[in-house]
Structures are given as structure tokens and as C-alpha cells.
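In the current project phase, our protein records have gained a C-alpha cell line. A sample record follows, to show the layout:
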Amino acid sequence: MNPHACIIRTAGTNCDRELAYAFEMAGASTETVHLNAMIDRPEMINRVDLIGFPGGFSYGDDIAAGRILANRLRHQLLKPLQNAVKRHVPIIGICNGFQVLIKLGLLPNPVQACQVATLADNTCGRFIDRWVPLQVDPQSSCIWTAELDHFELPIAHGEGRFTAPENILDEFEQMGQVAIRYADSQSNPNGSQREIAGISDPSGLILGLMPHPERYTDPTHHPQWTRHEAEQLAQTPVGLRFFQNAVEYARIQRQS
């Protein structure tokens, strides 16, 4: 039986289908569950092998991006999610999902579950939607980015500027929790400190990132795909490899 991925959605979520498709392309079965149904039956989390928090505008970003969803999760589902981490369940939060994981506190440390960083307004003051060059930090132990190095992914956000106190950023660096950076300061689209595009928890199981790997699961998703050589088109798209890495990890966990 394939690993089972649960995608948690709510009002304003709009990237859940793409996330489900990415998991399915990587070999997982999927189930998209509304937050209210999950709150009614939190034991559902006990039977999943992977968890995804998709992008979008949960609750319209009415008080801050991801804040309302994070508060609901904290008061009603934090313990089941922490138990999932103890079971070695890979979790990904993309864009709005990243904002949620940060405000919930599952990132950077699911045990402490305290918010120590945030995703603030882009320094340019407007929504940005484009492809950006990225690189995996060589110190990262994140399972989602295993065997990846330099690549491109699309972004689409207005509040993507990763910021935290300098001592917290130093700790991320020392613990290998900086998973992905914008390739350099010139390609940093939102002013994130230290060019941070995504971080993981200390175990490398939980990944939060602003770029959208679920939007690059087929070679034709890249805006320049018609200019790519046949050999390049035959390669597994970078975004899909994120999910293949996690699904394979979950498969091994089920067998152990």
C-alpha cells in the first residue's frame, strides 16, 4: 500500500489540488480534509503518513497571513500534529502553509511550538509572482530536499519576507535548519534575512518554504520549457523530487 498523504485545507485555501497532484505523482495516495472535519475527528491524523499545508489565502489573510488558521490549529490540533512528528511523519507547508507553520510554532521546533520568526510584507510593498533561482543550504538535513542543489521554482506572495532576531537566525545556521535560500541577494525577491526561502525543524522532517515545488511537477510547467534540450526535459522536475523524497521516506518508515 502506498503512503497516505493528508492535505489540510480551509476557507481561502487555493493550492490544495496542486499539492494533492504532486503527492500522487510521487506515489502517495491522498486525502484532502477540511479543517473543521479534522477538528471534529483529530484521530484522522493518526493514520496518515504525510501531511501538507497548501498555499492560498486562509481566512483571507484578514489579520495576518496564516494567523487565523495557525490559532485554530494551536487550540484544537497541536497535540495530534506533535504526535505525528513523533511518529516521523514528514510535513510540508508551502507559502501560506509556511506562514501557518511559523505562526503555529511547528517550525522551527515542534516540541516547543513557539513562534520565534515571521513572514512579513515584501520589502517592495507588493505581491510578487515569478520564478526565482534557489539553492539548498549544504548544512541542511531536510529530507524533502535530499540530493538537490541549485534550481528554480515559482513564487507568488505578498508576505514572504522571512525575518527573525539575529540570535535565532544564528541558531538556525548552527542547527542546519536553513533548508533553502534564494541564490543571492540580487535574486532575493522579498528582502528575507540571509536570503532564507525555507527552513526545517531540527529533524529535517518538517519543511516550510515560500516557493511552490508543487507547481513544477512536469517539465512543461517551466516557462522556458520549449527552449530546454531533450535531455533536460527527460529529467524529473525539481518540484516533483521534493515529494518523491518525502514519499520514499514515508514508505521506508512504514516498512520498518
Notes: Helices lie at 16-25, 35-40, 67-76, 78-86, 96-104, 166-175, 230-233, 238-255.
